[in-house]
Amino acid sequence: xxxxxxxxxxxxxxxxxxxxFFLTLLFSLPLGxxxxxxxxxxxxxxxGIAHILIxxxxxxxxxxxxxMWYFGPFYLFGWSIRGYRFTAIILGFSINYAAYFxxxxxxxxxxxxxxxxxxxxxxxxxxxxxxxxxxxxxxxxTILPSVTNEIITLVKDTSLAFTLAYNEMFSLAxxxxxxxxxxxxxxxxxxxxxxxxxxxxxGMERVEKALDYYH
Amino acid sequence: xxxxxxGIQKSFGGLEVLKDISLHVDAGEVVSIIGPSGSGxxxxxxxATFLEKVDAGEITYMDTTAVRTGGDGHAVYLPHKxxxxxxxxxxxxxxxxxxxxxxxxxxxxxxxxVHVQKRNKEEVREEAMAILKKMDxxxxxxxxxxxxxxxxxxxxxxxxxxxxxPAILFFDEPTSALDPELTGEVLKxxxxxxxxxxxxxVVTHExxxxxxxxxxxxxxxxxxxxxxxxxxxxxxxxxxxxxxQFLRNYQR
Lengths: 215, 252
Ligand SMILES: Nc1ncnc2c1ncn2[C@@H]1O[C@H](COP(=O)(O)OP(=O)(O)O)[C@@H](O)[C@H]1O
Ligand SMILES: [Mg+2]
Known about the structure:
The structure holds two protein chains of two kinds.
Chain A: H1 3-39, H2 44-59, H3 62-77, H4 85-110, H5 114-122, H6 127-157, H7 169-179, H8 184-210
Chain B: E1 3-12, E2 15-25, E3 30-34, H1 41-48, E4 56-61, E5 64-69, E6 75-77, H2 80-87, E7 90-93, H3 105-115, H4 121-134, H5 150-162, E8 168-172, H6 180-195, E9 200-203, H7 207-213, E10 216-221, E11 224-229, H8 231-236, H9 241-251
Parallel strand pairs in B: 3-9, 3-10, 7-8, 8-9
Antiparallel strand pairs in B: 1-2, 1-4, 4-5, 5-6, 10-11
Helix pairs in contact in B: 3-4, 3-5, 5-6
Magnesium ion is lined by residues 41-42, 173 of chain B.
């Protein structure tokens, strides 16, 4: 098998990897905000639920969570859902990452001084204005480095989708490596992850620079 | 009359911080509040500006009574919307400035008039620049708070409060977070406002300033107003032993 055919057959896997990556970010970034608000809720029950949820999601392997999402409906309820594999992957990834993002957000919000809220209140800003104009921009700046770390971890974690026999790039690399008795697919995979993470780091650094005008 | 507070009571847990305090401020008056740390001065300002809820008492701005004591002896506040329309009567300058760090000086001053009061942006910009000029900060309009000295930041905070055209401006120890050499520039600005007959209530430890600028001085201790009157009387001939003791400690 030539290098170009190898690349071609891995290409589709790369697309799938990218799809997992972007869909996970799309769902987990806002979902993390929801969990963070639950975590900071005034109602003890909601706070408790969020606390346990975060503890379980961060305290168990993502691989196990993926298996739970995929096989859970069948073993727990006897449901077999057609074409569920991809949904299970996105569910597992998004909810797991949302828990990590929730904790990052929480740290960000707690770093904002009470004085910012009070100044906004005295000046007459509504609660919505205070949140979006005053608080959130400062939170985003403080959490950016931690979010970058998490996104880089996600790039590498996408390979865990192989657990559910989903043919993303890493699974394909293993298959081709076995059938062709070649080491090349692993090198291609490594280069792919590296380049992707380099792009993420580069992009995030630009954003951090853009917010560097104050501290 | 701009502000009338009557029989204000406030406790934190079991701690009685304000015990039946009354405060009356007329238009154009400058009232200074002095007193030892922990006597409830900040709490009084925070109650006047609704950052804290009083337990009992009455607060009236202009002709709107925002808080009254209900039948059961507990304070009753106006509904949210009406309370908000009372909030436009006052501004508050904090000890720690609390500027918005992600906004430039000019945006700190302009943002609330434009986005809260929904006033015309160009008009607000002109006014904001005029206020900044008065604060001697017009050349720093594009700077960010982190690029300014503490004294400059506090002057921006004063400009930000003035831009909303409050009827009364509260100051909670506006110079206490500043290096000694920077207090002068902030006090000068407040003095200038006093000359323009801006109605102000200033909590301060700057005794010479309070004596020179205010029409009336309140001495607070342990949640009560121990003594109040004309600055020359309170500083020159205090009637209460506690006042004398406090002022003696300050002269040392
Ligand atoms: N949010 C709060 N919770 C509990 N105690 C408070 C709170 N705010 C102020 N206090 C207490 O109330 C008393 C008066 O505080 P404060 O009004 O800040 O005094 P001052 O401004 O005169 O120094 C102090 O004993 C302080 O510890
Ligand atoms: Mg105080």
